[in-house]
Amino acid sequence: MIETALILRETILAAVFAGIGCSVVGVFIFCLRIPFVGVLISHAAMAGAILAQFLHWPELPAALGMALFSVFFVGPLADRTDMDVNVSLSILFSLMMGIAFLGIGLIPEPRTPMLTLLWGNILLATAGDVLVMGTVTLLVLGCLRAGYKEIKTVLFSRTVAAAVGVREDLVFYALLVLSGAVVSVNLNSIGGLMLYSLLINPAAGAYQLAYRLRSMILIAALLGVGAALLGLLCSYFWALPTGASIVICSSLEFALCALLSPKRGRFRQERTDS
Questions:
Q1: Could you tell me the mean pLDDT of each successive run of 10 residues in the chain, 274 residues long?
Q2: Which of 74, 103, 168, 257 fits as disulfide partner to 50, beta carbons 3.0 to 4.6 Å?
Q3: CB atoms within 10 A of CB 270
Q4: How far apart are CA 101 and CA 121, in angstroms?
Q5: How far apart are CA 57 and CA 264, in angstroms?
């Protein structure tokens, strides 16, 4: 009974930290208008972890290293080749997917640990996993609190931020580093193929309801935690895959937010005026 209670506590804490961390950095990605970077980061972290399994390296450092490599390579690749950043993201995404599936093909049977990286299993979260997830989540919230004005300015416009003296490049890449850290520590719990939805859906849903950045971050965090806990309940009562349940719940939350959005009339008016 005590062991079951401890497992349940760790699972719930992991869901809460995953919901908060992913949704907050999801707001950063959403407001920067580069949502595809969430796909890149999640799949790069997955590729790094799969490669680490093949080479018998520690998974978390490899996942984080690959995620950071991918985001730091986007800007220089776009600048050197004079391409749109989304094209650079697509090229790097294909590279990461190639590395991931190459690793899957090379890893001998059984492939159960590798499948966990793809689909996630938050029910297997250990006390150590929860500690790491909580530490990274608190780091994200601490950075947000300490540099809120600078972050807000960069999220509004990198050009405006540079004009008023903000080191927009430093803030921009710091946000990407935080995003990579959050994705890496949640990889085993949510899964590389599922993380993108938990990054973007709560942020997109919060955007439907909020007019200010603070409100958007708070609502996104609530939606993220709600989706994670509701997904856990669905998984428990109906024996469903936990990661997929969380993602579906987050998608349903977005649909509800879009339906109830006070901005619907404004969006409709803007389309009519255009």
A1: 68 94 95 85 89 88 90 68 70 88 79 72 87 96 96 92 91 91 90 86 95 96 96 88 89 94 64 45
A2: 103
A3: 10
A4: 20
A5: 49
**Total-model pTM:** 0.89
For residue 12, CA distances in Å to 22, 87, 142, 200, 271 come to 15, 38, 22, 21, 43
Block residue for tokens 């490899």: 62
Q: Is residue 125 within a helix (H) or strand (E), and if so which, with residue range? A: none
Per DSSP, the residues of 206-226 read: HHHH-SSHHHHHHHHHHHHHH
CB contact set of 69 (below 8 Å; sequence gap of 6+) = 44
In 3-state terms the chain splits into helix, strand, coil percentages (rounded to 5) of: 85, 0, 15
Separation CA 227–CA 225 (nearest Å): 5
Other Cβ atoms within 10 Å of 202 Cβ, number: 33
Residue keyed to tokens 């966990």: 116
Contacts 24+ apart (CB under 8 A), 1-7: 6/127, 7/123
